[in-house]
Each structure stands twice: as C-alpha cells, then as structure tokens.
C-alpha cells in the first residue's frame, strides 16, 4: 500500500492519550503520515465504560499547524478546531470506538501533537512518542514508510472486528452469468477469447487489506454509486488489495462483520467482509468492471506492506498457498475476477537485513521466484483461465555476484516490487499454463522517494535508460510477456513529480502497457488519490493527466473488458464486443 502510497518517511508517531478515572472514554491523537509540508492524522474515541456514548464533540489546537481537509467528522473553527459527530457515528457502544481523520499543513514547522479536549475525553495529560524518519540506506530502494500503510484514517467503529458465520460458505463456488471474458497472453499482448488485444487500464482501491477489512470510503459513500462513477470515468479494472489473514478468515468461515456507513449503504447492513466483497463483485459486473486481486500483506494490517516478504507470524507460506487456492476455487466460474497479483512489493536488501526477497533457482523460503511459481501452479490447476501476475523484488546481484554479498555495489536496486531483472535468465515457468503468466512492476516519483535517477533535468528518455528498460521494460520489448504497472501515481506538484507522472503516462500510452493507477483513495499519504476527501469529488487535474492512458474509442467512449456489458452501464461506454464490432483498432504499442 506505499508509504508507498504511503509516505516516504516514517512519519513521526505521536499520540495524546486523554483519560481520567471519572471518564469512560479515551481519546487518542495519532499522526499517521508526515511529509515535507504536511501530514495526516487520526483521532480515535474509545468507549471504555458500560454505557453508550450518544453524541460527542472534541477539540484541539496547534501552535503552527493547520487543518486543510477532514473526513468522518464535522469540523469547525480555525485553530482551535472542533470536531463533532455525524448522525451515523455519534453513538459509541461500550467496548467500541469511532475514528475520524484529517490532513494538515505543517506551516513551516513539524507535525504537532496537540492535547485533545472535550467532556467525552475527560481530564488527562497528553503524552507522545515520536520516532525519527527512517529511510532506506540505499538511495535506490523504496523506503521504510509510515506505520499507517497505504491507508491513513482508522475507521473502524469497533475496537476489533467481530466474527460471524458467513452465509457465504467457505466451500461455496460463485458462478457468474457469462464466463466469456477470460484473458490470456500472446507475446507482449493480453488478448480475449477471440484473440483480440485488450487494454487493462485501471486503478487501485484499498481497504480490504487493512484492519478495517473493507474498502475505505464506505464510511461515507455508497459503494454502488462510487463504482458507477469509477466505470464512467474509463477505469475498466480495479486492483483490490487484500491480506492472507483475510483469506484464511474467509476460508474458515470467520469473516468479520465490518464497520461501514449503513445510512449510505443500507443494502450492506450487517454484512460480513466476504458478503460485502461479493456485493462488490456483483455491482462491478453490472457496470462492466473487472477485478484484479492482490495479496498486499500477510496480516490484515494498515502497515502490512512494509514487511518485506509474503509470510509473517501465523500466516506463513503454507497459509499463503492455502488462501490463494481457496479464493481461486471460490471464484473459478466468475470472470469478474480476471487476474491475481500474487504478492504486493516483495522487497528487502541483502546488505542490511536477514529478511529479504530474492530471485534465484533455489527452494529457499525467501526465494520469491520459487514461491510465486508454486502459487501460480496451484491457482492455474484450479482455474486455468485466470491471469497470474508476478511482481519483482528490490535488489538483484550484478553479474558475477551472489546473494551472500553485503556490499551495496554488488546489487542493482529499484522500487519495491520493481526489480524484474531475474526474469531475463530465470523466468517464472508454469508448464501448460504459460499463457496465463505475466509480470507487474511498480514505479513511483520523487515525492515518494528521491531516487538517484531523479537528478536535475531527468526526463522520459533518461528514466528509460536509467531504470525502466533494464529493470522491467525489456520484458515487453523482447515479447517475453505483457506488463501491468500495478502502481504508479502521486501528487500534482507542478514540478518534478509531475514530470515523472507525465513520463510514465506517456510510456504507458506508447507501449500500451497495462496499468492500475495508485489510487482511488484520497487517504494515501504520499500520493493522494483520484477522489478528494469527500470521496465524491474527483481531482480533475490528476484525472486529466490519467485520462489519455485509459482505453477509449475514436468517438471518445471508454472501452471495457466485458463482452456484453458496456463500461459504466448502458449508454455510457462500450463493451469489448461493441468496440470491435464498430471497427475498433487493437490497442498495440511498441
């Protein structure tokens, strides 16, 4: 999530815990992400008493910082600030909590930790802990990032998800109506059942990977309405981050009942995370949207993507395999999910840690090539029609060097998940199913991390020579497989970050690379999103930059990946069949 997506610095973690023996609630102030000029934060009100809290108002004040946007509370004032509950989150039952978030401007200072006041909080002493920013010791690697992952606001209305026996049994197999939209590769192209090239032009929407176990934003907007708007804007596939822990919970019938705004989503009231996911698939199918699932982390954790490998704690490689096998079986007859991205951003530096993802011909536990190959074989044995996407790693030894070296000069570095140099000599091999395997690097701009290739005067041409060609673009150029840029995006800074964004956009168009933009969510600390903080208004300048890289016909209508349902619904966009019936040209680049 990043972070990447996520703040490029380990934002200082600060909390102010306010409580008194006479009060039942605890109010917690937390800085989720921090960057050069701004930050995002969360205030959580936890009901520790035995009676419900009905309505709440809290306040806080800064010496220099100022709030620029907020969500999940009504803000008033201009330092001090007052935050008041909405009707849908004003009641806090015993043992539960409510959170709201905000983004701020540091105004030339540091991100502050103010005391939170209000009768619900009681009298207390503000305490804080902070850590210095931590960045990678290699200037060419993705940094360690915010403790709040790709997601910023904590939105759960309970301190921990409750579990229930899902009505969607762990052994159920979902069946979709058409099943004629499966895809496969042909050289550097992705083609449909008729051998016609298609173009996957999508975006990410995170939340199912986090502790909330559901899309972020459903605390304020209707899921169906949001999906319709996404499809109408030309996004034809949604990359959905999840976790191995979530898959195992679903598999074992322990799907959590999640916290959403049921006033905005009455049709999702009392549904588990799995039931909401199934509703999402049904709504996506209605608008001609396809889905790409991505295991973002082992644990359901807003910071889970920071951990470098696909196994952690109770969720080891065996659980990783089992989770993928279960979901591949459950949806093997549903062509709404057309692709599986096995693991988000395997990374780690051999020079600085004993835990890192490598790529070689061994069966070592940390060998991403071996784990990816084994997972692909298991998925494709169950569903031979799905596309399986393999991301890269972070570091790869230069010629003549091995993984045992601790010398940084013995490695090539790239973004987390972006280093696919190993494919040149050690490609992923799945006998009998090779046409279902492809690769998916990630790439970001200087506002995520100031990589060495972002020197003064950098351009699309220098990026091609310095980083893109040798790390992953050669895979497309040599027709080894198609590429899907699983994450790219960022803030519109009017400067170097936009230079990079336009360069990446133009490369995508030139080569007709498949891609999923990071992201829909506005609560991505170091990139922002396509939606603004109200989860309704679109960031029009950012969308204008993205729009040319979306699949559209000569008449301007956007093209989807469904053969029967037009993208966005009837009268909005085109289906794949409509596009080609009207003489559409295959989207084939260099």
Question: Features of this protein?
Answer:
globular, alpha/beta, 590 residues, eight-stranded parallel beta sheet, five-stranded antiparallel beta sheet
How would you describe this structure to a colleague?
The structure is a single chain. It contains nine helices and 25 strands. The protein has 590 residues and is α/β, with parallel strands linked by helices. The strands form seven sheets. It has an eight-stranded parallel beta sheet. Strands 1-2-3-10-6 form a five-stranded antiparallel beta sheet, with no helix packed on it. α2 packs across α4 (317-330) and α4 runs parallel beside α5. It starts with 14 loop residues before the first strand and ends in a 9-residue tail after the last helix.
Q: Average pLDDT, to the nearest integer?
A: 87
Number of helices: 9
Strand order of the largest sheet: 23-20-19-18-16-15-25-24
Label the overall shape: globular
Could you give the distance between the termini? 30 Å
- Rg, alpha carbons: 23 Å
Structural class: alpha/beta
């Amino acid at each position: 999530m990043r972070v990447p997506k996520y703040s490029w610095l380990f934002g200082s973690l600060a909390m102010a815990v306010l409580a008194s023996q006479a009060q039942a609630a605890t109010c917690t102030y937390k800085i989720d992400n921090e960057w050069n000029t701004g930050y995002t934060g969360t205030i959580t009100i936890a009901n520790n008493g035995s009676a419900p809290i009905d309505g709440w108002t809290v306040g806080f004040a800064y010496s220099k910082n100022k709030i620029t946007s907020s969500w999940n509370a009504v803000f008033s004032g201009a330092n001090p600030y007052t935050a008041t509950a909405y009707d849908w989150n004003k009641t806090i039952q015993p043992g539960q909590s409510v959170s709201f978030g905000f983004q701020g401007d540091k105004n030339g200072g540091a991100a502050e930790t103010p005391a939170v006041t209000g009768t619900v909080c009681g009298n207390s002493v503000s305490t804080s802990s902070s850590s210095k920013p931590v960045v990678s010791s290699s200037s060419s690697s993705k940094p360690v990032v915010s403790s709040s992952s790709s997601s910023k606001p904590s939105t759960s209305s309970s301190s921990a998800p409750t579990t229930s026996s899902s009505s969607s049994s762990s052994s159920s197999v979902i069946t979709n109506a058409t099943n004629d939209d499966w895809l496969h590769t042909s050289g550097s192209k992705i083609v449909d059942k008729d051998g016609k090239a298609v173009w996957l032009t999508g975006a990410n929407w995170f939340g199912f990977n986090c502790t909330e176990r559901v899309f972020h934003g459903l605390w304020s907007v209707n899921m169906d309405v949001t999906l319709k708007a996404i499809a109408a804007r030309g996004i034809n596939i949604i990359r959905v981050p999840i976790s191995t822990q979530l898959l195992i919970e679903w598999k074992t019938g322990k799907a959590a009942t999640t916290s959403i705004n049921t006033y905005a989503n009455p049709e999702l009231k009392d549904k588990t995370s799995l039931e909401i996911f199934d509703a999402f698939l049904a709504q996506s199918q209605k608008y001609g949207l396809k889905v790409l699932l991505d295991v973002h982390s082992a644990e359901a954790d807003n910071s889970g993507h920071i951990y470098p490998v696909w196994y952690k704690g109770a969720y080891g490689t065996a659980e990783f395999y089992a989770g993928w096998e279960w979901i591949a079986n459950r949806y093997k007859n549903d062509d709404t999910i057309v692709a599986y991205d096995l693991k988000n951003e395997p990374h780690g530096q051999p020079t600085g840690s004993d835990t890192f993802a490598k790529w070689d011909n061994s069966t070592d536990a940390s060998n991403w090539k071996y784990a990816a190959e084994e997972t692909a074989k298991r998925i494709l044995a169950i569903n031979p029609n799905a596309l399986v996407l393999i991301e890269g790693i972070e570091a790869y030894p230069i010629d003549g060097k091995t993984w045992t070296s601790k010398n940084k000069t013995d490695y090539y570095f790239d973004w987390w998940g972006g280093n696919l140099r190993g494919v040149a000599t050690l490609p992923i091999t799945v006998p009998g199913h090779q046409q279902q395997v492809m690769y998916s690097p990630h790439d970001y701009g200087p506002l995520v991390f100031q990589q060495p290739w972002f020197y003064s005067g950098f351009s699309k041409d220098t990026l091609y020579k310095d980083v893109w060609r040798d790390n992953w673009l050669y895979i497309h150029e040599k027709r080894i497989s198609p590429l899907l840029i699983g994450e790219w995006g960022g803030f519109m800074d009017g400067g170097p970050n936009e230079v990079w964004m336009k360069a990446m956009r133009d490369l995508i168009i030139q080569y007709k690379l498949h891609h999923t933009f990071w992201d829909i969510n506005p609560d991505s600390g170091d990139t922002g999103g396509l939606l603004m903080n109200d989860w309704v208004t679109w960031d029009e300048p950012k969308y204008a930059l993205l729009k040319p890289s979306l699949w559209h016909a000569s008449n301007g209508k956007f093209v989807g990946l469904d053969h029967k349902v037009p993208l966005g619904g009837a009268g909005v966009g085109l289906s794949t069949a409509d596009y080609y019936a009207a003489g559409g040209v295959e989207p084939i680049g260099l």
